[in-house]
Design a protein that fits this description.
179 residues, six-stranded mixed β-sheet, binds adenosine-5'-diphosphate
């Protein structure tokens, strides 16, 4: 199990090997973290995303999956673009999509491990524009990363607000995971 750290701050300022972008399937930029990553990282990242769309991912990146690019001007070496699900409201569909949220974390970890990253930083995937309730999003994030078989030794969650940080702290506490 990787060491898990929880911090409040801006993901794009992280000094880690890989940062995970809460992207959308189009991979061509967006709001929230996605906008911040492309603004801070510069045009190289978007150019690489466009190349992926023109070659291996003509239909975009499916929900729950992850793909790496370079990190442009960021301190990181790689950006791992992951697509979380949109919150559908409570019920059976939420249960199905929760699996996709877990997959977004699992696949990002697998990509990071495959690259040989020693450290990776995540935002709270789906918990912004995609509307996933913060407590649920935090539980899925922590539980999935803690269960990862092959992971970079350090996983940081970089939360944009104190409230989200508190949710992640509470989720770790409930799951008995040290941070
Ligand atoms: P999604 O579309 O997957 O919901 P968002 O980018 O809208 O993704 O939001 C995901 C989470 O990232 C939200 O909690 C949001 O407040 C947070 N966030 C936005 N910008 C940053 C940033 N620069 N660093 C870290 N977290 C951020």
């Amino acid at each position: 199990m990787p060491r898990i750290e929880l911090v409040t701050g801006d993901l794009t300022a992280e000094h880690v090997d890989a940062i995970v972008n809460a992207a959308n399937s189009a991979l061509l930029g967006g709001g929230g973290v996605d906008g911040a990553v492309h603004r801070a990282g510069g045009p190289e990242i978007l150019a690489e995303c466009r190349r992926l769309r023109a070659t291996t991912l003509p239909d975009g990146l499916p929900t729950g999956e992850a793909v790496a690019t370079g990190a442009g001007r960021l301190h990181a070496r790689w950006v791992i673009h992951a697509v979380g699900p949109v919150w559908p409201g409570p019920g059976a569909e939420a249960d199905a999509r929760r699996e996709l949220l877990a997959a977004a974390y699992r696949n990002s970890i697998a990509v990071a491990a495959g690259l040989g990253a020693a450290s990776v930083a995540f935002p709270a995937i789906s918990a912004g524009v995609y509307g996933w309730p913060a407590d649920d999003a935090a539980r899925v994030a922590i539980a999935t990363v803690a269960a990862a078989q092959t992971a970079p030794p350090l996983v940081r969650f970089v939360l944009f607000s104190q409230r989200m940080h508190d949710e992640f702290q509470a989720a770790a506490g409930h799951l008995g995971i040290e941070t």
